[in-house]
Amino acid sequence: MIYLICTPIGNLNDISLRSIEILNSSDLIYAEDTRKAQKIFHKYKINKKSFSYNDHNERSKTKKIIEEAKAGKKISLISDAGAPLISDPGYILVNECIRENIQYSVIPGPSAVINSMLLSGLPTNKFMFLGFLPRKNTERKKVFENNLNNDATLVFFESPKRLVKTLSMMNEIFPSTRRAVVCREMTKKYEEVIRGTISEIHVHISARDIKGEICLLIEGNQDLLESSINFNNEIKDVALKNMSPSEAAKLLSLITKQNKRDLYNWLTKKS
């Protein structure tokens, strides 16, 4: 049996009781960063040794793990923070488990993607995680251009060293009034959430020396939503004159078959 265990993204107190239980009872533990794993082990008195499993040895170690699982070993996999596989190693292992018919399970827990979405204040009914932004400017630009008209909230991981340049590029491609959010050092002592338009955040970040783990979020194209709803401000005014935004969204959803949350966002958006 193989367990994919989510670990804290910053605050070690966020680990679940079940995660501690599974780690304590595992025969073998593989970790993306054995030094970070040791910090968790030390805090929760988990008397185990972890073995390296990262981008550099993932293919060779996967074969070994599969053989150990076939031999009846109870194996745990943890990333350096958050969920394995999500911009971290583990995808190859899961596919081999499926191919070899080896049972595996996920122990849920902290996720930087979900945490940033909850903190952002941007629409949560539809979002898309696009991982780490490419290092090369041409590739990064292509990612933004391809998602210019995406109506989902976009979530990225980005290096603090490239954040100013990335925001500058976003400012050139997206409408400058498009909302964005920078979540920094989530769950840690100096957690910070910076909200505003892309232009405002670019000015703010440019004046600072930003450090730490970064999640960058961009509001989806709400203009597409409004055109698909095909309503005008007169309909909005009539609806809100006689009922609350929540009630109006529910009624309009029944009439138009549009998503109720999308309608609510449209109704409450300032003209």
List keywords for this structure.
alpha/beta, single chain, Methyltransferase, Cobalt-precorrin-4 Transmethylase, Domain 2, 44% helix, 5-stranded parallel β-sheet, 271 residues, Cobalt-precorrin-4 Transmethylase, domain 1, 5-stranded mixed β-sheet
Report on this structure:
- It contains twelve helices and ten strands.
- The chain starts with a strand and ends with a helix.
- Helix 7 packs antiparallel against helix 8.
- The chain has a five-stranded parallel sheet, with helices on both faces. A five-stranded mixed sheet has the order 6-7-10-8-9.
- It is of the alpha/beta class.
- It has helices at residues 17-25, 34-43, 58-70, 91-99, 112-120, 137-146, 163-173, 198-206, 222-229, 233-242, 245-256, 260-268, and strands at residues 2-5, 28-31, 50-52, 75-78, 104-107, 127-132, 153-158, 179-184, 192-197, 214-218.
- The protein folds into three domains: 2-110, Cobalt-precorrin-4 Transmethylase, domain 1; 113-218, Methyltransferase, Cobalt-precorrin-4 Transmethylase, Domain 2 (2-Layer Sandwich); 224-268.
- Strand 6, helix 6 (137-146) and strand 7 (153-158) form a beta-alpha-beta unit.
Summarize the structure.
The chain folds into three domains: 2-110, Cobalt-precorrin-4 Transmethylase, domain 1 (3-Layer(aba) Sandwich); 113-218, Tetrapyrrole methylase, C-terminal domain (Methyltransferase, Cobalt-precorrin-4 Transmethylase, Domain 2, 2-Layer Sandwich); 224-268. It contains twelve helices and ten strands. It has helices at 17-25, 34-43, 58-70, 91-99, 112-120, 137-146, 163-173, 198-206, 222-229, 233-242, 245-256, 260-268, and strands at 2-5, 28-31, 50-52, 75-78, 104-107, 127-132, 153-158, 179-184, 192-197, 214-218.
